[in-house]
Amino acid sequence: MKALDAYIGHLEKRINIPIGTIEVILVLETAKAMRNAYEIVVSCPRIQRIYLAAGPGGDANRAIGYVWSKEGRETLFLRSKVVLDSRAAGIQYPMISSWWNIKDLEGLERDALFNRQLGFRGQVVIHPSHVPIVNKIFTPSPQEIAYYKGLIKVAEEAEKKGFAAAVYKGNMIDHAMVTTAHEVIKFVESIELYGS
């Protein structure tokens, strides 16, 4: 990665664009890459995206030797590790490619929901029919958006009164929950900015 960074930096100088403009996407398809994902990311600031391959029959399947299932239990550790490594290295939106069946849209929806619950923030798709389903799963719903906006409002009102915590919809909220709420709203605003 250091050699690649230096090579790209040389090219950026040659074509007269700011150093660091060109980003690199890390696609994890080998056991070594999955094992060292965090170390790879922190070694090269150009890496701004991580995609885990966890589908049936491909390079990752062969490298790890798992027996793929629709439920994804065999790749749960890999999926969880990549999310943890990504977030620890500063990658906010790790992505995954784990569903290659073009016609089983219900299975895709379950898989995408599983991935979102684990912390992935998007999913690479292989067919146009998959796009609306994946967008629906990974885009916060109007109810979620309203919830987080309400949470922020209640927390701000509590802070004005000198309180560090408050009760919102029956639950205690504090700075940690407010930070999460702001992250979700920022994500929603970035989606709206690009018209997705």
Describe this protein's structure.
By secondary structure, this protein is of the alpha/beta class. It has 2 domains: 2-138, TIM Barrel (Alpha-Beta Barrel), CATH 3.20.20.60; 142-193. The protein is built from 9 helices and 6 strands. The chain has helices at 2-14, 31-35, 37-43, 59-64, 76-88, 105-118, 131-138, 142-160, 175-193, and strands at residues 24-28, 47-53, 95-97, 122-123, 166-168, 171-173. Strands 1-2-3-4 form a 4-stranded parallel β-sheet. The chain is globular and about 55 Å long.
CATH uppermost class of the largest domain: Alpha Beta
The pLDDT mean sits at 94
Q: What is the CATH architecture assignment of the largest domain?
A: Alpha-Beta Barrel
Uncertain segments are none
Please, how many helices? Answer: 9
What would you say about this model in short?
The chain is an alpha/beta fold and 196 residues long. Helices cover 53% and strands 12% of the residues.
Primary descriptors:
alpha/beta, 9 helices, globular, 196 residues, TIM Barrel, 4-stranded parallel beta sheet
What is the topology?
Blueprint: H1 2-14, E1 24-28, H2 31-35, H3 37-43, E2 47-53, H4 59-64, H5 76-88, E3 95-97, H6 105-118, E4 122-123, H7 131-138, H8 142-160, E5 166-168, E6 171-173, H9 175-193
Parallel strand pairs: 1-2, 2-3, 3-4
Antiparallel strand pairs: 5-6
Helix pairs in contact: 6-7, 8-9
